[in-house]
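[scheduler] slot 2 assigned
[scheduler] job type: sequence-to-structure, two independent chains
[scheduler] chain ordering preserved from manifest
[runner] begin chain α
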Amino acid sequence: MGLPKNKEDKSAQTPETHANDGIALACCNFVSYEKFQTANTHGHQWFGEVQITQAPFRVIARPNLYRRQLHFENPDSNKPNLNQYRKRKGGTITPFGFRSGDYVLAKKADQEYFGWVGGYTDTEKAKKVSVYDINWKRIGQFTPSKVKLLQRKTGLLVAR
């Protein structure tokens, strides 16, 4: 098919690194390598045709959400309130109306950030929503009033 392949830097998020393998796999549905036999010759050849056209390249990833860890810490019988011996780890719904994995627009210091909700802090001192980029690196923690929901969680992160 003549698709260029970048074998030097596998971490680069470019079509030459990742998309060409997917294109080749998709083409297998339309092209096949089959036996043939005529009066004079026999062998194998490709049957079918694929026309490759330009298309947008999007990075698609799964969110790296915290899963339930029921036995992360052992109970401490010396604490006065026995319900407080384990810290909250993750969770899917924030008290601010967002869900982990929601695509949002967050504002801080006259700058706008697009990303996905990955966690929150809800204490007496601070109420914050953590927003992450496509590589699940935290962009920052934002006040819930400055975070706007753009799209509900789909289970996939699609770079825009």
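[runner] end chain α
[runner] begin chain β
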Amino acid sequence: MSHAGSDERTGSSSCRLTFDGTTVTARPGQSVGAALVAAGIVAWRTTRREGRPRGLFCGIGVCFDCLITVDGRPGQRACLVPARDGMRLSAEGDRDGDGGDGDGDGQRW
């Protein structure tokens, strides 16, 4: 089991995040989205209309598919938020961040 501390292979430190009650380990410089995907968590919100799962898609802050609540602040892009020890993450539910048709793909039809 991984835990916060030093990585013996690389000498780098790691941190622990909590996502909806599950502990996730992140590496230095890693985004929250990358840490979740590395832990096998690939979706953390659903679209309003169809209830389709969404998570990390573009990975560069353009698509808004990866919206997540970070330390009580909703609407954060997981691909842009750097992981910090002790962060509390939670799923967004049925939020759509792009103003599109509800499927999170940015299209209005």
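[runner] end chain β
[qc] chain β: The chain is about 5% helix and 30% strand.
[scheduler] slot 2 released
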